[in-house]
C-alpha cells in the first residue's frame, strides 16, 4: 500500500511518482520495508517519513534525493520516539 494516494489536489502524477521514490528510498536506507506484509510493523516510522516528504514537497522541493535525505534527517531526529 502506498503512503501517497493516487490522486492529490496538490501534486500531479509525476510529482507523486517522485514522492513515492523518495519514500521508498528513505525506507530502504533506514532498513524498513515500505509495505511490509505485517502492515503495523514500523507504521509510525513510515507515516512520519511520508509526512516529512509531503511537507517538504509542499514547500516546493521536487528533487527525490533531497526529499529522501530530508525524511532520513527527520527520521533520525525522532528515532528515539519510534523505538518506544
Summarize the structure in short.
It is built from four helices and no strands.
Plain-language structure description:
There is one protein chain. By secondary structure, the protein is mainly alpha-helical. The protein has one domain (17-82). 61% of the residues lie in helices and 0% in strands. The protein has 4 helices and no strands. It has helices at residues 13-29, 43-58, 64-77, 79-82. Helix 1 crosses helix 3 and helix 2 (43-58) crosses helix 3 (64-77). The longest helix has 17 residues, at 13-29.
Q: Which term fits the overall shape?
A: globular
Indicate the mean pLDDT. Answer: 80
Structural class: mainly alpha
What's the alpha carbon Rg, rounded to whole Å?
12 Å
- Beta-strand fraction estimate: under 5%
Helix content: 55-70%
- The overall strand count is 0
H/E series: HHHH
Helix tally equals 4
User: What is the count of distinct domains?
Assistant: 1
Largest sheet: none
Stretches with pLDDT under 50, minimum 5 residues: none
Show the helix and strand layout.
Blueprint (H helix, E strand, L loop, with lengths): L12 H17 L13 H16 L5 H14 L1 H4 L2
What are the key terms here?
4 helices; mainly alpha
